[in-house]
Amino acid sequence: MASSKVLLFVALFVATSSLVLASDPSPLQDFCVADVNNTVKVNGFVCKDPKVVTADNFFARGLDKAGNTSNPNGSKVTAVNVMQIPGLNTLGISLARVDYAPWGINPPHTHPRATEILTVLEGTLLVGFVTSNTENRLFTKVLYKGDVFVFPVGLIHFQQNIGYGPAVALAALSSQNPGVITIANAVFGSNPDIPANILAKAFQVDEATVTKIQANF
């Protein structure tokens, strides 16, 4: 009986320890303002000396200004991440303003390091995301002013302004530097190009079609 209790205790301890180790560590100090010019490469940014940190390291302005949507997609993302606010370093959060021309799109893309929660400030958006390859299930929703929608981390998602006037949304992301992979740009605009025969087979089209699409990027 005693040995059984010991084994049960050990099993519980291992399970609990595993759960603890699987979580993100807590910050070890009040803040770690990014020294973006430091040549030391780490997973994130080296901290500035706290003695030279000022309030401006936690500040940015300009999100009241509409982005220029005069581009083929008809949208503009204005990011506020660790590059704009060095004080976000290690804090695991950032945001972006997204402006859309009428019928403009924020094309299919992913954030490899962040979940996104999107709030519509003006206009009407059609939004959606696709699950991973096990199902490739598409979830879509029409959002109106004040509506909120979540895009799970790493999944391909998009937005389209389906109204006749401009639209604006604010996106919050669970990373100081969420990254973005725009699918079309990455696949057809890589440097150097992905060989056309590979893309032709993947998309089940001829190589001439692939080459024509690549030329657009």
Short description:
By secondary structure, the chain is of the alpha+beta class. It contains four helices and ten strands, in the order αββββββββββααα.
List the helices and strands and how they pair.
Blueprint: H1 2-22, E1 75-80, E2 94-100, E3 105-110, E4 116-122, E5 125-130, E6 138-143, E7 148-151, E8 156-161, E9 167-173, E10 181-182, H2 183-188, H3 196-203, H4 207-215
Antiparallel strand pairs: 1-2, 2-9, 3-8, 3-10, 4-7, 4-9, 5-6, 5-8
Helix pairs in contact: 3-4
Shape descriptor: globular
- Side-by-side strand order of the widest sheet: 1-2-9-4-7
SSE string, helix = H, strand = E? HEEEEEEEEEEHHH
Derived structural class:
alpha+beta
Number of domains: 2
- Overall pLDDT metric: 90
The CATH fourth-level homologous superfamily of the largest domain:
Jelly Rolls
| Total beta-strand segments | 10
Estimated share of beta-strand residues = 25-35%
